[in-house]
Design brief:
TPR-like_helical_dom_sf; mainly alpha; elongated; transmembrane; Tetratricopeptide repeat protein; transmembrane helix
């Protein structure tokens, strides 16, 4: 049975889940209480469909409540569905049972990376490496974390070491590509992401990396990426502090611009740049997804929902520009900005909705804002119906949605 289980484990690692399930089924039927068999069955369920694997994980934990691997699988499944607090609690249980298992420390490092706790993630990765100096996952984690912390020279050295010992490891090429991307070297990053996908066509992280590298051929997106990588280096408290400081600066500049005609003349471009920067951080990623539809390779990497939301963001942005310019040329200078701002608001909402896997309360609010915005502009631009009564609920809804989205994106699960 050992050889058969080894083959099934290999099939799982190759993402050949249906074949693994087919070969595992008769063995599981004959050995429903066997540790290795039920472990593989649970692991397979997590790899194939983590959202529906909770029952299998709890069943395995019930059979073997004192096994570190049972808690490891619980942590792995929770990590896959972004339940970070549950994941960290489970992996700590596994470590308390088997503190010298490097796999457990590497998993803890991965979870902490997902929580953006880079310093603690680095400590966990180095603990794993103290137990196994050539642990591939821990080495890759360490490379990514060092890069996040701005220690790119160390990150690249660590990554080169990993690739030297594991040249056929897909994730090692992904982590190296990510470091190049953070250094602004999108072409070198693309080479490593391409190699990662050659070694494992189902490597979703490498697909995301390749998509970002293709987008980074645009200068504005490269600058946006550097901002995103900088934000990743901050802890949760500092991210909130940055948002608050930015808002205070924006309000202060606006106040100073209102003090005199001269100050307004000089500070209006500053206000415009600050507003444009904020807007770009909200819509640029989704806008780039919309543009990827026209890229012969990029179009295959964008997920269906991201493609739809990207096209909506692109459409709303174009409509905002056309509305502003068209109404200006037609002499409607007093109202042109209102309709354009409604389209901008719709673009902001669609720009963040493409991150949501499934609608929640914030998501439904976002879809409602888009629908209300469409009604507003159809009534005002097409039918000539006054829209004043609907503007207030639209912009209040937009502010509530955006604040909720910012807190949601910065909250650690």
């Amino acid at each position: 049975m050992g050889a058969a289980l080894d083959r099934i484990h290999l099939l799982i690692e190759q993402d050949r889940y249906d074949q693994a399930e087919k070969e595992l089924a008769p063995i599981l039927e004959q050995n429903p209480m066997d540790f290795q068999v039920t472990y593989l069955d649970t692991y397979l369920s997590i790899r194939k469909a983590p959202k529906t694997a909770k029952a299998k994980v709890e069943h395995f934990l019930g059979l073997f409540p004192f096994s570190d691997l049972a808690f490891y699988l619980k942590a792995y499944r929770a990590f896959q569905v972004d339940l970070n607090q549950e994941a960290i609690k489970a992996i700590d249980e596994a470590i308390s049972i088997a503190p010298n298992d490097p796999d457990h420390w590497a998993m803890k490092s991965l979870i902490l990376m997902n929580m953006l706790d880079n310093q603690q993630a680095l400590k966990a990765a180095e603990q794993a490496l103290s137990l196994d100096a050539e642990h591939t996952q821990a080495l890759n984690n360490r490379s990514i974390i060092l890069s996040r912390l701005g220690r790119t020279a160390e990150a690249m050295e660590n990554s080169s070491h990993t690739l030297h010992h594991n040249p056929q490891d897909s994730f090692s090429h992904y982590s190296t590509g990510l470091i190049h991307l953070q250094k602004g070297q999108h072409k070198k990053a693309m080479e490593h992401f391409q190699e990662a996908l050659r070694l494992n066509p189902n490597n979703e992280a490498a697909k995301d990396g390749m998509l970002s590298a293709i987008k980074a051929s645009n200068l504005f997106y490269r600058l946006y990426l550097q901002y995103e990588f900088w934000i990743l280096r901050l802890n949760q408290k500092n991210r909130y502090a940055f948002i608050l400081i930015y808002f205070i600066i924006f309000r202060l500049v606006r106040f100073m611009a209102g003090l005199s005609a001269d100050s307004k003349l000089w500070l209006t471009p500053v206000i415009a740049l600050l507003g444009l920067f904020a807007l770009s951080t909200w819509i640029l990623d989704s806008l780039s997804d919309g543009l990827m539809v026209f890229h012969r390779f990029g179009r295959h990497l964008v997920l269906p929902k991201q493609r739809v939301m990207g096209l909506l963001t692109l459409s709303f942005t174009i409509l905002a520009l056309l509305t502003f310019i068209g109404l200006n040329l037609a002499g409607y200078s007093e109202v042109n900005y209102v309709y354009a701002l409604v389209f901008v608001g719709m673009a902001i909402v669609s720009g963040s909705l493409h991150y949501m896997e499934k609608p929640n309360l914030i998501g439904y609010l976002g879809y409602s804002i888009i629908a209300l915005g469409a009604i507003l502009n159809i009534c005002g631009l097409v039918l000539g119906i006054p829209i004043d009564a609907l503007l207030t609920p639209f912009f209040i809804g937009l502010v509530v949605y955006q604040i909720s989205s910012i807190f949601r994106s910065n909250r650690i699960s």
